[in-house]
Design goal:
The chain has 163 residues and is α+β, with helices and mostly antiparallel strands. It has helices spanning 19-32, 64-67, 71-78, 101-107, and strands spanning 4-11, 13-15, 39-44, 51-56, 80-84, 88-97, 122-127, 132-136, 143-147.
């Protein structure tokens, strides 16, 4: 099970000067947001009756703060394709099941910039069922807008049209 999504377009840049702050915020989620983790395991030892419960964010390593040494590695662990340029880290893609990447992105939303600096940064997503939406960053909360992809004039095309 799961819902597959793809990034269709992103203008989302984490400036270099915010790498450490973003890394710290994303690592803190492992402690501060334990109650919203969707992944996990449960084991009860048949001999001792001792219970072991582990929780983690969907599709993430439980110990990602120990394994991922910087914000780029966390973003890649989340499933994003990341490019590093002069301005910083940029999301160049994502094509996978949804997990809890939104929580991580929102934790750094106010640190993110648009490439021109004149607009709010954003990511346009599409889902496996044809749905599309746009997430707008740059403020403390992420704003989400549902969308419809249309191509004006396409309705006038015909398979049998002749020239």
């Amino acid at each position: 099970m799961g819902y597959y999504v793809e990034v269709q377009y992103a203008d989302w840049i984490l400036p270099r000067k915010h790498y450490d702050e973003a890394y710290n915020r994303m690592c803190e989620l492992n402690v501060t947001h334990h109650d919203v983790k969707r992944g996990g395991s449960y084991h009860k030892d048949s001999d001792t009756g001792a219970e072991t419960r582990n929780r983690w964010f969907s599709w993430m390593l439980p110990d990602y703060p120990d394994v991922c040494k910087n914000v780029k590695e966390i973003m890649e662990e989340l499933g994003f394709y990341i490019e590093e340029g002069e301005d910083g880290l940029a999301i160049s893609g994502y094509s996978n099941k949804t997990g809890q990447e939104g929580l991580f992105l929102e934790s750094v939303s106010d640190l993110i910039i648009h490439s021109t600096g004149e607009m709010l940064p954003f990511i346009v997503w599409s889902g496996e069922d044809g749905g599309s939406w746009k997430e707008v960053y740059g403020e403390k909360e992420v704003r989400v807008f549902d969308g419809v992809v249309s191509f004006p004039g396409e309705e006038n095309l015909s398979k049998n049209a002749s020239s």
